[in-house]
Amino acid sequence: MNHKNKTVVRSMDLLNLFKDHAQLTFQEIIDLSGIPKTSVYRMLMSLEEMEFLEKGPDSKYRLGIIFLKFGHLVSSRLDIRKISFPIMQELHDDIGEAINLIIKQGDEAIYIEKIDTNQKVRLYTGIGRRSPLYAGACARVILSFLPDSEIQTYMESVELRPFAKGTITDKEDLYKTISEAKENGYTISYSELEDHTAAIAAPIFDHKGDVIAGLSIAGIEANYQNENIPIFAEKIKAAAEKISKCLGYIPS
């Protein structure tokens, strides 16, 4: 390793200290890094000049504002479909049921990815299909994890219309399913968008902790009974969490 590369690596070592510490003094950086004092001083000066670090009036160092700019660029360039697809494929290969990915658009949900190659009975859902946020597990799981104020606003304005025999058309019942979803980490639906179908869905969160998508396992109603429910629920929650982590989400 030449001198230039060594300096770069050491500078990154200093920056990595701030993953676990919001702020550090000059001496704390020396102690934690194990790098000689004079070298730390030179690197801190350079990192501060380039806005990777900033030194406050309390003489403590913190990550600089440039990381906010980089963070925005990274989050805006992440393609949720590209990230989700291999995880969806793995889940589909495991259980043989359709796997759907949806995002919120206004007061609706839109299906943006679906894998159902191995499913014997194909479902109604397809990429580009829209559904209201209250109908179907995959859409409702997004509604369930929105901020309470947004849920309240939505509930006050929405008209609950039936699509199939199991569509929720009573607002008290809808509030109940939302509450259950928050408690359980998933939601389930039976014959809400099409008769004799069922789905179990979990939320996907971004790096800010906001719900941005829903992931569901879906199939014929007969397969979503008894012991299959907790099995499917744990699998969809694990897959959704894996996608969320890829998007920068850190579970609390």
Describe this entry's structure for a reader:
This protein has 252 residues and is of the alpha+beta class. The chain folds into two domains: 4-73, Winged helix-like DNA-binding domain superfamily/Winged helix DNA-binding domain (Arc Repressor Mutant, subunit A), CATH 1.10.10.10; 77-245, Beta-Lactamase (2-Layer Sandwich). Helix content is 45%, strand content 19%. The protein has helices spanning 3-16, 26-33, 37-49, 66-77, 80-95, 137-144, 148-157, 171-184, 228-246, and strands at 53-55, 61-63, 98-105, 108-115, 130-132, 187-190, 197-205, 211-220. The strands form two sheets. It has a six-stranded antiparallel beta sheet with strand order 5-4-3-8-7-6, with helices on both faces. It has a two-stranded antiparallel ribbon with strand order 1-2. A hairpin with a 6-residue loop joins β6 and β7. α1 crosses α3, α5 (80-95) packs antiparallel against α9 and α6 (137-144) packs across α8 (171-184). The model has no long low-confidence stretch (mean pLDDT 89). GO terms for molecular function: DNA binding; DNA-binding transcription factor activity. Pfam families: HTH_IclR, IclR_C. This is IclR family transcriptional regulator.
Top keywords for this entry?
252 residues; alpha+beta; Arc Repressor Mutant, subunit A; Beta-Lactamase; 2 domains; 6-stranded antiparallel sheet; two-stranded antiparallel sheet; 9 helices; 8 strands; 45% helix; elongated; transcription regulation
